[in-house]
């Protein structure tokens, strides 16, 4: 679920960066005397023990050239030789040097496989605030998401959660199908006279409720199962469409009751009027909700 992983990374990037920055700052020597490659590599080993995932460490000099092997501590110190490679054009190197602080890049596919990973780059300075090295750590995206959020996409809980949502949405789909069936049946199969329009109103209500449930199913299926998130607007749009369908169904029911009591029992017409007042309150509340939501999005 690559799209879902990227979306989850965007939502938690600040938390991930803060967490990694804390670990790196607590272990790496910085702004101190006698900083050398050996000390940095020892610190990288300590960081790898805390991350507990597939991670690759390497050191760049101040000009962006790799001066160490690629060290995979989680794979029992397996080394890949990339010494001398020019990485001065990499975004994580340029950003870390320019901003003079730790930088976490966006996800990108690995060189030897299609798995997404991110790189954490931390500049190392001398006691005189001169740039000495840039320590880089490549971490698989799925590993860092599990570390920050145990209920992440590929975790056991995440898979159970998606399965639960799938079962619930399929059940709701069956309910919507039943409502649709009876709504169509009341129009086509049932015999009714032109003087009795109650069947038409009832079928319209059933079809409207079926549409509302389908909108709800679509939103949950895309968000929770497929992982498609539309920033800032998906939840509000889903709520607006669902409430609008419910309001329409209630309005049709109120209209049907007004006609019914007007012809059969005028004294009891107060009840559908109360329902109409309640619907008006729902419409006003929905309008306020739309206003507040759009205002919040505009401010962001």
UniProtKB/TrEMBL annotation:
Which keywords describe this protein according to UniProt? Membrane, Transmembrane, Transmembrane helix
Q: State the protein's name.
A: PDC sensor domain-containing protein
**What domain of life?**
Bacteria
Has UniProt tagged this entry with the keyword Calcium?
A: no
Matching entries from InterPro entries are given as:
Sensor-like_sf
Query: Which stretches are transmembrane?
Result: 163-184, 204-221, 242-263, 269-292
């Amino acid at each position: 679920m690559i799209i879902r992983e990227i979306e989850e990374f965007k939502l938690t990037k600040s938390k991930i960066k803060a967490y990694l920055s804390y670990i790196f700052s607590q272990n790496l020597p910085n702004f101190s005397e006698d900083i050398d490659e050996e000390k940095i590599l020892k610190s990288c080993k300590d960081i790898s023990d805390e991350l507990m995932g597939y991670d690759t460490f390497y050191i760049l000099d101040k000009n962006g050239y790799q001066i160490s092997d690629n060290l995979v501590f989680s794979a029992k110190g397996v080394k890949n030789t990339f010494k001398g490679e020019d990485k001065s054009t990499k975004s994580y190197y340029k950003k870390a040097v320019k901003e003079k602080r730790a930088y976490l890049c966006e996800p990108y596919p690995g060189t030897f496989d299609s798995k997404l990973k991110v790189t954490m780059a931390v500049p190392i300075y001398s006691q005189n605030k001169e740039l000495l090295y840039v320590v880089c750590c490549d971490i698989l995206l799925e590993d860092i998401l599990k570390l920050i959020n145990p209920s992440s996409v590929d975790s056991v809980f995440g898979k159970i959660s998606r399965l639960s949502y799938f079962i619930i949405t399929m059940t709701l789909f069956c309910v919507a199908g039943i409502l649709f069936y009876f709504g169509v049946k009341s129009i086509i199969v049932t015999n009714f006279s032109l003087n009795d329009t109650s069947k038409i109103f009832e079928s319209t209500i059933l079809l409207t409720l079926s549409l509302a449930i389908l909108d709800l199913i679509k939103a949950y299926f895309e968000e929770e199962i497929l992982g498609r998130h539309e920033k800032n607007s998906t939840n509000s749009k889903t709520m607006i469409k669902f409430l609008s369908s419910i309001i329409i169904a209630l309005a049709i029911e109120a209209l049907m009751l007004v006609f019914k009591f007007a012809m059969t029992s005028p004294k009891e017409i107060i009840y559908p009027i109360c329902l109409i007042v309640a619907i008006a309150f729902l419409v006003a509340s929905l309008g306020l909700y739309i206003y507040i939501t759009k205002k919040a999005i505009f401010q962001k």
